[in-house]
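Milestone M4 deliverable, item 7.
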Amino acid sequence: MGRGEEGVPQNLRIEDLKRIQIECAKKVIKEDDFDTVETVGGMDLTFESIDKNPTRAWASLVVIDIRTLKTVYNLVIEDVVTFPYIPTFLAFREMPLLLKIYDQAKVKPDVYFIDGQGIAHPRGCGIASHFGVETGEVSVGVAKTKLFGYYREPGPSRGSYSYLKYRDRVIGAVVRTKEGSAPIFVSTGHRISLKTAIDLVLKTSKYRVPEPTRLAHNLLQTVRRKSLF
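Output delivered:
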């Protein structure tokens, strides 16, 4: 398939992608829309080459018990990613693989932590919100870096947080999950309030990165190394 502006397939344009995200943002539910949470799943992706396109890629899902923080299920899949990396359009590159592992998973957690942004996105629909709206699942954006907005540094102790804002509107939280570590960026994905998202992130964190996404990342790195060597 031929490539158009910024490497986007010719049947799509940046403005088309923006419209999809804007429509997605309108469907996001930003309040708690579920009962109890017993399991949380972490999802992550890694690529054979970030710079090349297409490239081999791997996606992982690790589901943990929220009481013990122990893994109750995990899955890794491999596929080829053909959509280029374009800042703020990550979902169009990674969503096909996330949806594939979601469909194949034999265990569906109560909440999904996605390594990326939820509504803390220029058009209000980062990959965590996109995933939640697409599947109807409860989702939270858990990112290691800020994409969008401004904030004051939270206090140094574990559990401290400040709000991530844009034009005085709260779009997420900057959460200190481990004393002495840099904070992480938490935002509503879908069907969850920011307060509950923060609580779940802190409840599932032993280190800087919450256990679901930390374990998903570690599993991916192990599988990727074995596949490449």
